[in-house]
Amino acid sequence: MSTANAMKREVGKAAAQRVKSGSIVGLGTGSTTAYTIEFLGERLKNGDLKDIKGIPTSFQASVLAKQFGIPLTTLDEVDRIDIAIDGADEVDPHKNLIKGGGAAHTREKIVDCLADIFIVVVDSSKLVDKLGSTFLLPVEVLPMAMTPVMAAIKKLGGVPELRMGVKKAGPVITDQGNFVIDVKFESIDNPAELEKTLNNIPGVLENGLFVGVTDVVLVGEVVDGKTVIREL
């Protein structure tokens, strides 16, 4: 296993250890939270954890939960989410995030914002001084509105690009059947304001800025050849 995967595995496991029996758990999307889902399944299997239900944030999370034996539920059937665990593409010193590398940020934001406790799991490469430093900002948009939305984003100073599929001809299609526009901003000085401004553009469903949502960040790092977990 590569060093990066080892960090993801350990931090995903550490987050899974924080889930208590009887919890409704938001199941995030991505390579790090995939390990969290796996370890939650192991805890259920060995009896260390009982009576939990998961709310998946994507088809990926749903498939993994079924694979590892985690019962699923929906927001129509529960009145709370006790804890949500998810990854991030960038984390700033204020625990604000850019998410959406997996094109699941709309459902992730719904679930993560509803959770009593939202835990972010990342490796140290995801820590930045300022959002937008290393990762483009994903914006989910209705297909019919792609052109006017991109024009509006340009007026805000962003450089938009339609995300194209890999091993698929044409654009990436989200779980909701929409497109993703990845945007480069020279500087995101006020993430909270930009989040609202983008979401007010007609045709935009949601963007990848998560501001004031995160409770805990667990960071996996390699120190003296060993993987260690620290909390922000």
Description:
The protein is an alpha/beta fold and 232 residues long. Helices cover 29% and strands 27% of the residues. Helix 1 (3-16) crosses helix 2 (31-45). It is globular and about 55 Å long. The model has no long low-confidence stretch (mean pLDDT 96). Belongs to the ribose 5-phosphate isomerase family. The active site is at 108 (proton acceptor).
The percent range for helix content is: 25-40%
Alpha-carbon distance between the termini? 26 Å
Give a quick account of the main beta sheet: strands, pairing sense, barrel closure: 6 strands, mixed
Low-confidence stretches: none
Report the mean per-residue pLDDT as an integer. Answer: 96
Large-scale geometry: globular
**Strand order in the sheet with the most strands:** 2-1-3-6-12-13
**Which structural class fits the helix and strand makeup?**
alpha/beta
Q: Radius of gyration, Cα only, in angstroms? A: 18 Å
Beta-strand content estimate: 25-35%
Number of strand elements: 13
Along the chain, the helix and strand elements come as HEHEHEEEHEEHEEHEEEE
Catalytic activity: aldehydo-D-ribose 5-phosphate = D-ribulose 5-phosphate
Pathway: Carbohydrate degradation; pentose phosphate pathway; D-ribose 5-phosphate from D-ribulose 5-phosphate (non-oxidative stage): step 1/1
Keywords: Isomerase
EC number: 5.3.1.6
Helix/strand layout:
Layout: H1 3-16, E1 24-27, H2 31-45, E2 53-56, H3 59-67, E3 81-86, E4 90-91, E5 97-98, H4 105-114, E6 115-123, E7 137-141, H5 146-155, E8 159-162, E9 179-184, H6 191-199, E10 204-207, E11 209-210, E12 216-223, E13 226-231
Parallel strand pairs: 1-2, 1-3, 3-6, 6-12
Antiparallel strand pairs: 4-5, 5-11, 7-9, 7-10, 8-9, 12-13
Helix pairs in contact: 1-2
